[in-house]
């Protein structure tokens, strides 16, 4: 489920841990079959070369237990607030969701990687987003002000691949709902720095697919150095 990428990309040159990076991937395929995963791998490799002392944790959402926000979860939360005992199913799901959000809060930086499916991201990423948007953990409600994000010291990067051209400024940008939603969520949680790498046009300009991926890899390598 979770693996240390240093084991994949090489050992750290330093021993002192400085920051923790959560590498969150939402693709069923690996980097050999996925453009977004290939660019993500390039980003992480470059990042570890530039920040050898940091810790990078890979969270593969397709291999991660993410409970749905179902009746057990809502009943469990209600019972916790009322000081009542939870059923085994309620406790298991509530505890797991708490583990997920605690891991997210503990990280200093986030790298999200996903393909574009039907103008958005895979459902597993939405389930993950639902699990990290927790009042009192990642945001809070302030009287006369509304919700305020609590992750104001974090930063994030989003790597997204698509068959069409969907990035801001493109003709079909208004149809894109994956990056735009994640951008809203990062703002909602108070994350002040959120950058994007779009690997787009892989199908619309299939004859240029390799060049598109190579260009995104170059951008990933450069952005990783200053991330």
TrEMBL record:
Q: Which residues bind FMN?
A: 34-36
Q: What does the record give as the function of this protein?
A: Also exhibits azoreductase activity. Catalyzes the reductive cleavage of the azo bond in aromatic azo compounds to the corresponding amines.
**Subunit structure comment from the entry:** Homodimer.
* Entry-linked InterPro entries: Flavodoxin_fold (IPR003680), Flavoprotein-like_sf (IPR029039), FMN-dep_NADH:Q_OxRdtase_AzoR1 (IPR050104), NADH:quinone_OxRdtase_FMN_depd (IPR023048)
- Cofactor(s) of this protein: FMN
Protein name in the entry: FMN dependent NADH:quinone oxidoreductase
Q: What is its EC number?
A: 1.6.5.-, 1.7.1.17
Taxonomic lineage per UniProt? Bacteria, Bacillati, Bacillota, Bacilli, Bacillales
Q: Which Pfam families match?
A: Flavodoxin_2
Q: What class of enzyme is it?
A: oxidoreductase
Q: How is the cofactor bound?
A: Binds 1 FMN per subunit.
Q: Which family is it part of?
A: Belongs to the azoreductase type 1 family.
Keyword entries, A-Z: Flavoprotein, FMN, NAD, Oxidoreductase
List the molecular function annotations (GO) for this entry: electron transfer activity; FMN binding; oxidoreductase activity, acting on NAD(P)H as acceptor; oxidoreductase activity, acting on NAD(P)H, quinone or similar compound as acceptor
Q: State the encoding gene.
A: azoR
Q: Per the database record, which ranges form the Flavodoxin-like fold domain? A: 20-222
Q: What reaction gets catalysed by this protein?
A: N,N-dimethyl-1,4-phenylenediamine + anthranilate + 2 NAD(+) = 2-(4-dimethylaminophenyl)diazenylbenzoate + 2 NADH + 2 H(+); 2 a quinone + NADH + H(+) = 2 a 1,4-benzosemiquinone + NAD(+)
């Amino acid at each position: 489920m979770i693996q240390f990428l240093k084991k994949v990309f090489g050992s750290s040159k330093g021993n002192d841990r400085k920051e923790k990076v959560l590498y969150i991937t939402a693709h069923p395929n690996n980097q050999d079959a996925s453009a977004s995963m290939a660019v993500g791998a390039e980003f992480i490799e470059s990042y570890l070369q530039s920040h050898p002392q940091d810790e990078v944790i890979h969270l593969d959402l397709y291999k991660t237990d993410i409970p749905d926000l179902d009746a057990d979860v809502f009943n469990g939360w209600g019972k916790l607030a009322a000081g009542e005992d939870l059923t085994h199913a309620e406790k298991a799901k509530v505890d797991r969701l708490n583990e997920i959000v605690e891991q997210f809060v503990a990280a200093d930086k986030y790298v999200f990687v996903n393909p574009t499916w039907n103008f958005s991201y895979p459902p597993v990423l939405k389930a993950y987003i639902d699990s990290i948007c927790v009042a009192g953990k990642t945001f809070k409600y302030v009287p006369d002000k509304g919700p305020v994000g609590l992750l104001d010291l974090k930063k994030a990067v989003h790597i997204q691949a698509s068959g069409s051209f969907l990035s801001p400024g493109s003709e079909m940008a208004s149809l894109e709902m994956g990056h735009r939603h994640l951008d809203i969520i990062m703002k909602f949680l108070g994350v002040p720095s959120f950058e994007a790498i779009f690997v787009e046009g892989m199908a619309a300009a299939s004859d240029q697919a390799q060049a598109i991926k190579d260009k995104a890899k170059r951008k990933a390598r450069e952005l990783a150095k200053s991330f």
